[in-house]
Amino acid sequence: MQSYSRYLTVILALIQGIGLTYTYQNMYVEANMLYYIASVVTLVCGSTFVMWLAEQITAKGIGNGSSMVIFINIVSGLPMGAASLYYMISGSGAMGAVKVAAILVLLLIVLAFIVCVNRGERRLPVQYSSKMVGRKQASGRNTTMPIKVNTSGVISIIFAISLLQFPQQIGNFIQNKGEVFTKVIEVLNMTHPIGACLYVLLIIFFTYFYTSIVINPNEIAMNMKKNGGFIPGIRPGQPTSAYITRVVSRITLVGAICYAILAMVPVALQWISK
Q1: Are 137 and 228 in contact (CB under 8 A)?
Q2: Would strands 131-133 and 229-230 be described as parallel, antiparallel, or unpaired?
Q3: What is the pTM of this model?
Q4: Which residues have CB under 8 Å from 218's CB, separation 6+?
């Protein structure tokens, strides 16, 4: 699967590199075939290097490599953001200072909310009965099975943004888009009410979709039964699987709503600033 992921990454980088090169060529320069080849090869090699770098970060145990690369990209924009806040204070006086203070307070609230959601989990009690191991009897033990609220992480938000922006990316290759296609792109913009509603629905959908891939209640219940474990008050086997499915479905709904609220904060700020 890791090899397939690498090959797919190179293929997607090639497609995106061709699209970006074509877009920039139409916007800025008149270029020949050598320009296309050099640009596409550079973009694909850069993407491959970033993929390799992310894998090395993961292998060294520093953390999730892809998330670290994304985090570094976000942090690199902090100086520009700080400069914007400074210009807002210096240019608007007291009113600008109030706006900056409100933005900072909002950021702290959002940060605290993200931490709470990320650390949130539902712990299912699991009890293992005593069994014979060789000539010795292993005593039973009580433990918990944690189910995280943010099982899908930011994957659902990334998928939702990518799907909404796909028509806009296609429109970059079309010079005469037409009135209907232009209207579709405008409606699918996240700042548009319809686009915002679709954005929320897609986040909820992809949260459930990714969670269903990561968590398999049938497999969990089967492994638990093989090892002599059970959830108190729930029979082993299919009833345990149904119970885990119900719990995962409910906690995923909470996580999806939390993700949707976090994703809508920048959109709401754009609405307010208009």
Answers
A1: no
A2: unpaired
A3: 0.75
A4: 241
274 confidence band (pLDDT: 50, 70, 90): low
Beginning with the edge strand found earlier in the chain, give each strand of the sheet holding 121-128 in spatial order.
141-148, 121-128, 229-230
Q: Answer yes or no: are the C-beta atoms of 182 and 189 closer than 8 Å.
A: no
Cβ neighbours of residue 35 under 8 Å, at least 6 residues apart?
Answer: 21, 25, 29
pLDDT of residue 232: 85
What string of H, E and C letters represents the secondary structure of the chain? CHHHHHHHHHHHHHHHHHHHHHHHHHHCCCCCHHHHHHHHHHHHHHHHHHHHHHHHHHHCCCCCHHHHHHHHHHHCCHHHHHHHHHHHHHHHCHHHHHHHHHHHHHHHHHHHHHHHHHHCEEEEEEEECCEEECCEEECCEEEEEEEECCCCCCHHHHHHHHHHHHHHHHHCCCCCCCHHHHHHHHHCCCCCHHHHHHHHHHHHHHHHHHHHHHCCHHHHHHHHHHCCEECCCCCCCHHHHHHHHHHHHHHHHHHHHHHHHHHHHHHHHHHHHC
CA angle centred on 144, ends 138 and 147, rounded to 5°: 145
**What would the pLDDT profile of 29-60 be if each residue is shown by its tens digit?**
666 788 888 889 999 999 999 999 988 988 88
| Distance separating alpha carbons of residues 98 and 76, to the nearest angstrom | 25
Better-scored residue on pLDDT, 174 or 194: 194
